[in-house]
Structures
1.
Amino acid sequence: MIFPKTQHYHASCLTQARNRLENRARVRSQKLGVNDKRVFEILLSEHRAFSAYEVADRVGKNSKRLQANQVYRAVETLIKLGVAHRVELKHGYMACHSTDNCTAHQILICKSCEQVAELEHSKLHAEIAKSVEEVGFVPEPQKLELLGICPNCSQKTHPNPTEEY
Ligand SMILES: [Zn+2]
Ligand SMILES: [Zn+2]
Ligand SMILES: [Zn+2]
């Protein structure tokens, strides 16, 4: 998913992501614990990355606070199922809002509003693979994270009156 508008119907993001989690778990015979679901709900609440401690805190607002290791375990399950990703630059995790198999390992992070979005650009991956091969470097499965300013924020700073919202 690319950056959603600041005002968008987030309920449909939620429904879609929840269904995707249930389907994934069923297909892979992965039992989902109550913590897995709780953690996923926090990650889903906003299109941004959350640190493990932040997740633990937020879960604690509604019910018993989770220990950091319980958060890690839940996040691990979600990542394995492909419905969440690690965001290294934020030392945290994000929910995946792709509709099917997510092969996007290019994560865009807005420095201003903290929104995250995924980009799929296989050519970029091929180029990186080729370039590192030339210097004899063996990369890990590639994930690219880019910091920048999202379209919502750049419109705020450089409003374009001719553009329709
Ligand atoms: Zn949304
Ligand atoms: Zn994804
Ligand atoms: Zn932004």
Note: Residues 10-27 form the longest helix (18 residues).
2.
Amino acid sequence: MIFEGYRQEVNSFDSKYKQIQLLDILPNQILAFDIYLYLPANDKYVHYIRAHDVLTNDQLQRLKFNKIKELFILKSDLEKYNDYVSSNIRSLLSTEDGKLKKQAVKSAAELIINSVEMLSSDGNIIEWNNNCIELTKTVIDDIVQTDDISVAYDKISDYLSATPTLANHSLIVSSLGVIVAMSLGNSAPRTLTEIAYGGLVHDIGLGSLPAKIAEKYLNREEMSVVEIALLKEHPRKGVNVLQKIIKSRNITDNVLKIVLEHHENVSGHGYPQGLAFDELSYLPKIISIADKVALEMLSIGTGEISLRYIILKIMREQGPKEIFDQKMLRVLLESLSHGRA
Ligand SMILES: [Fe+2]
Ligand SMILES: [Fe+2]
């Protein structure tokens, strides 16, 4: 039995293989590359699916049943893999069916966020960036077309997953960011795009940290002093990842600012720079509120609680030691009371 002795501790530094996520492989689609499983008991990679074959629904269920989330490809197949991911994103986002669209947007976010570390050529990088823009456009369109902010919020709670992933959290923050920005009176497409794009990639630096840290952070679990110190590096690491891959070509300064400053706060005790109130930038302040709301939505866990309730909770909890911009929270609350801003 192939799963016997299978553990999740995999050696990602092995030179010949590259780890991918099971979520990235859609069932019943012809694959252009081989897929391997890692067996730690024998420290061996075994062939699981051959190129020109498909991952069947049965196989997918079996992998899920065995709690296997990581698969492997040969590093030499990276270009083929990236092409596969890009074409999946395009076909997912072209879905017209409203119900399917929600699922498609979720899957597209997983594919985009998971593929960031895989970008190996200029062509892939441009494609990745285009995919980010496509996805954020879909998110913005959906929200702009909704007349009432509260209704838009209810819609995005469909994106919530019981077990949060970095991609899922990023998608929620991207959509919430657009809702918050619109409630504050922003309607310029460029601003909304920067907010949606910035929200999508704000935590991309978490992907460069040990997986346990992102998991603990998203689940709001207690962390050791060392883990907290590592966590505080994620904004800078995010900027590094984006600058390296995008070469500043399409990522705007505002997007990079969102990534760098989304954990700064009004009291001046945020990280990584501990900026003072008058040094805080406008768009990162919006994303920091969206980020907080996203984490609250998760811990409440139902998607049944109104945005108004969450904002009131944040305002009450932060008290006089202001973390989030109180004025922004007040305007947001007001717009929720009076429908569309
Ligand atoms: Fe973050
Ligand atoms: Fe976040």
Note: Residues 4-12 have pLDDT under 50 and may be disordered.
